Amino acid sequence: MGLKNLKAGELVYVGKNKVTALVLNLETKISKAILFGNDNLVKEGDSVLQANALVSVGVNTGLFGRVVDSLGNPIDGGEDLIFDEFYPIDVKAPGIISRKSVH
Structural domains in the chain? Predict the structure, then answer.
C-alpha cells in the first residue's frame, strides 16, 4: 500500500480527474504536494497515481508570444504546443566562479 519510491519533485495525478500535483515533502506516513489544477476536483480519499517522472517543462521557439501555465500548457486559446525538448524545473545553480559577472 502507498506510493513506493516516491521522490520529491515528482509528478503525481490525484483523483478520477487526474489533477496534476508536484510532490514536495516526503515524510514517514505522509507526503505533501502542490496541485497544479482545480482543487475542487480533488476530494479526501481520492487515489493518487505516480507519473514516475520528475517535473520538467517543454521548451522551443513556439513559446514566444504565448501564455502558458506552470507546466507549459497553453492557456491563451491558441494551438497546442508540441515540444521536442524538456528541461527539469529543479536544477542546481552554477557555482559562483563559473557565473558571468554583471556588467
Answer: 1-54 (2.40.30.20), 56-103 (no CATH)
Strand locations in the chain, DSSP E? 10-14, 19-26, 31-35, 48-54, 56-59, 85-88
CA distance 30 to 40: 21
Three cell numbers written together for 7: 521522490
Q: Is 19 within 8 Å of 13 (Cβ atoms)?
A: yes
- Contacts for 93-102 with beta carbons within 8 Å, 24 or more apart? none
pLDDT band at 23 (very low <50, low <70, confident <90, very high): very high
pLDDT in tens, 56-99: 888 888 899 999 987 788 999 988 898 889 888 877 877 777 77
CB 4 within 8 A of CB 25: no
Cα–Cα distance measured from residue 80 to residue 96, given in angstroms and rounded to the nearest whole number = 38
